[in-house]
Amino acid sequence: MAGQSAPPIPLEVLNPGVRHGSARHSTGANQRPPGPLRAAFLGRTSTEDQQDPTLSIPRQLKTCREALSEHGVVVAHFYDIESGRKDLSARGLGRGHERFQIPVPREGGIQDLLAEAARPDRRFDVVICESIERIARRTYVGTLIENQLEQAGIPLLAADEPIVLNGKKATQVLTRRVKQGVAEWYVLNLLEQSWGGMEAHTEQGYNTGKPPYGHTKLSVPHPVPARRAEGATKHRLTPHPVEGSVVTHIFELRVGERLGYKAIADRLNLDPDQYPPPTPVIPDRAVGSWTQSAVREVLTNPKHTGYMVWNRRATTSGHGKHNPPQAWTWSSVPSHEPLVTREVFIEAQQIAPIRERSRSASGPSTHPDTQRSYSLRSFVACDSCSRRLRGRVRHDVVYYVCDPPKGYVPEGHPKSYWIREDQLMDGLTEFFANNVFSPNRRTHLADLIAQTDDRVVLNHQTRIEAVRKTIDDLDKRRRRLVRSLETADDIDEDFMRDIRARSAEINADRKAKTQELTELEHTQPPQSRPELLDMLPSGHVDLRQIPEKIQRSLFEAFRLQMRIDNATGLVNCQATLNSAAIPAQQQAAHDAIDHARPSRTGRAGVITRPSVRYSLGST
């Protein structure tokens, strides 16, 4: 250590076998060859889009060289173009530097520097950066890197701190920790302010990023005079003259015919001039046709309802992954002309779980082993286990079978049960004849409609009461948390950290539930619209005698659901009339009537007293 007096006894006497001079360098580094202090430069710029690495990296290197002028020389160069808020395991893996001609040689990034620091043949004695926040924007990650270098005997120097090489570093550590805390606070504060700004930006109806398919940007003058003088603008959304009608048509296919993503894409690709495919953000990735993912993106984008929505994707921290809907930011009122109604959008989202693992087309599957098709495929489910029944043929008779996998059989559920297709079709024909195609259908369903409305209102009120109860429970938990602090005798830092984390969780849960309660209280429960029945044609239809393609179109249009109670042998049939789907339902009903044939006599076997539930309304 500099200024230390020589020991009164030779070191080789105190520690035989170790030659004098083998102690570590006074800076903490291992023994090195005589000459200037060898330093490795460590640099970083946050993003390749918002900063200019061709200027920042050379400036950082120049600052470090000037700080080392009296002590050493830079012999290796390590730098990255990435966020300093990443975990250490995710650092140094980017390739952003390859996009620039940076006039500084690069031996690698942070991971390469740490790997070489652990080797005995490393080229450097110390690591130097422009300032400690260049190492990391999170104190934990910065001190972790510093500790790993220290374990290897390598000090971490910063050009804006005094370079002390005599081993005394208490004041340096205190100064550095303060700077790291300030740097982390600055970034967090900046992020929170930016988040608030984006929320206000969304509330005011301005779009961020590329306009979704179906809309185009409408430039408006920037509200800040100085930015406006520079020619800056903000953007709202307005319907695209061609793509707007395509979006509306896609929702009609999804809601009206309940087509899957692939079926919709195939339909659109039949006429690419009328239905031009979308162009991705990077035009070179365009495939020139509609794909399932492109259709899904249209159907799941809530901006088509006229509301502005932000934070659907984690564009910076999550590599574009979809955020949960609870994390989205919505404008409180519509901000631009909608392409679909809110009710149609909601209806389209509810089709996805129904369509899961189900083909849209009629007829046999394209699998080479397929021998036949099943008319009621995907429409029949078990009321006990909620699984869809699968078709089977035995002795030339078509059955639908429920046989859950071993270990997934609910209590009271048989290992398997079989129901004949002809019996199901008999009961279904009777259901449609009385409730859909009969001229007296409205009178027939009057009592059921009134009961349905009462049940919907009751369910809506029950949900409101359940959310209120949850909020009360969260308030009780928060009060208990406060009492635990009041009665605690010894509160250490770990305990306070746990308390703060739990308090934040409770506050977040309460905020979400309060928002849900507000929405429920300001939303009227959906009401039946029996007048929709009058818009359907009436006539005689025997479902057993019409082609399978027309059958499936009819079932899809009316959202047919058949749930079997295996204990009683009854089938609960449900059809839904929807204002958005009325055109498709009218067409499907007309097609069924036009192809009707005289019905064969006989009653259904298992469904002698079909249980009927008929849902009407706008949702």
Q: Summed up, what is this model?
A:
The chain is 38% helix and 14% strand. The chain is α/β, with parallel strands linked by helices and 619 residues long. Helix 13 (446-487) runs antiparallel to helix 14 and helix 15 runs antiparallel to helix 16 (582-594).
Which labels suit this protein?
4-stranded mixed beta sheet; Rossmann fold; 4-stranded parallel beta sheet; alpha/beta; Hect, E3 ligase catalytic domain fold; 4 domains; 16 helices; disordered C terminus; 619 residues
Task: Report on the architecture of this protein.
The chain has helices at 11-14, 53-67, 110-117, 139-151, 170-203, 225-229, 243-256, 261-269, 292-300, 342-355, 421-435, 441-444, 446-487, 493-521, 548-557, 582-594; strands at residues 37-45, 72-81, 126-129, 156-158, 215-221, 233-239, 309-310, 313-314, 321-322, 329-330, 380-382, 390-394, 397-402, 417-420, 561-565, 570-577, 611-616. It is α/β, with parallel strands linked by helices. It has four domains: 11-190, Resolvase, N-terminal catalytic domain (Rossmann fold), CATH 3.40.50.1390; 215-227 and 234-355, Putative Large Serine Recombinase, Chain B, Domain 2 (Hect, E3 ligase catalytic domain fold, Alpha-Beta Complex); 380-437 and 536-616, no CATH class; 447-521. The longest helix is centred in the last third of the chain and has 42 residues, at 446-487.
